[in-house]
Design goal:
The chain is of the alpha+beta class and about 160 residues long. The chain is about 45% helix and about 15% strand. The chain has six helices and three strands, in the order ββαααααβα. It has helices spanning about 25-30, 35-40, 45-60, 65-70, 75-95, 110-120, and strands at about 1-10, 20-25, 100-105. It has a three-stranded antiparallel beta sheet with strand order 2-1-3, sandwiched between helices.
Length: about 160
């Protein structure tokens, strides 16, 4: 199963305008990073990837590294393959889009169907609210006592 991040446009128009970004490795982003970035309208990232790949290749040739210099540009490809989808999500956030959530589905059509069903469903009022921040009453006491042979005494240097 694949996980899709659902991004909604800034105007909160129709739900059909949502964009689904598949979370995971991007093979096309790995094979042709600048073209993949241009396809997804990541202009600055594409220019930066092209320049870094060119500089690494030229630097490798000038230093006489041979094949190793060319392989350095492979690091850019690996980065875009691993983090390309994250770059897309960050670009959408900069443009005012917001996260709706994530959808787990086999294919993009299934993800769209699950999103449409979940977006139209009324919120469940009886569902317990999960606390992200723990209760302060359950926190550890400030005096921890002896630890690894060191004695901590508050108020003493």
């Amino acid at each position: 199963m694949a996980i899709y991040v659902v991004m909604e446009p800034p105007g909160r128009g129709e739900k059909a305008d949502a964009t689904f970004v598949r979370d995971g490795f991007s093979w096309l982003g790995f094979l042709v990073p600048p073209l993949w970035l241009l396809w997804h309208r990541l202009w600055i990232e594409a220019a930066l990837a092209f320049v870094v790949m060119a500089v690494l290749s030229v630097l490798g040739e000038k230093l006489g590294l041979g094949l190793t210099g060319s392989l350095l540009s492979l690091l850019v490809s690996l980065y875009v393959g691993l983090e390309g989808q994250g770059l897309r999500i960050a670009a959408l956030r900069r443009r005012g889009w917001h996260d709706w959530g994530v959808v787990e589905a086999e294919a993009l059509d299934d993800a769209d169907t699950r999103y449409a069903l979940a977006a139209d469903a009324p919120p469940d009022e009886d569902a317990p609210v999960h606390r992200i921040v723990p209760d302060a009453a359950l926190a550890r006491p400030t005096q921890m006592g002896m630890a690894l042979g060191l004695n901590h005494t508050p108020g003493r240097p």
